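Methods — Computational structure assignment.
A single polypeptide chain was analysed. Its primary sequence is given first, followed by the predicted tertiary structure written as structure tokens.
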Amino acid sequence: MLSARIYKYKNPLTIENVEKPVITKGEQALVKVSAAGLCHSDLHLITDDWKNSIPLQLPTTPGHEIAGWIEETGNSVPKNILNRGDMIAVFGGWGLVFVFIVKMEMSNTTIMY
């Protein structure tokens, strides 16, 4: 899968193929990303403004605002919450214990957090 990666601070991102992640914990979900946002906090990471407060193990992929489809769920994810093929948007700040997941359906919108 294609990924824009930080290899060196204050340098352009490198676009490359990376291996598809795998679920390692039961509460995880794998999202096939169709769109990703790059916000100003990502720019702080790329330019090393936060190098001392948020040290990164390079290379890394920035971005914490995505939209896509559930591709796979861990065995602890309730089937009535997230299922393969569900369209979702994920957003959250750095350092939060959780992120917000918005599950969009034709009939209504459910916000879970």
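Note: Strands lie at 2-5, 14-17, 29-37, 65-73, 87-91, 100-104, 109-112.
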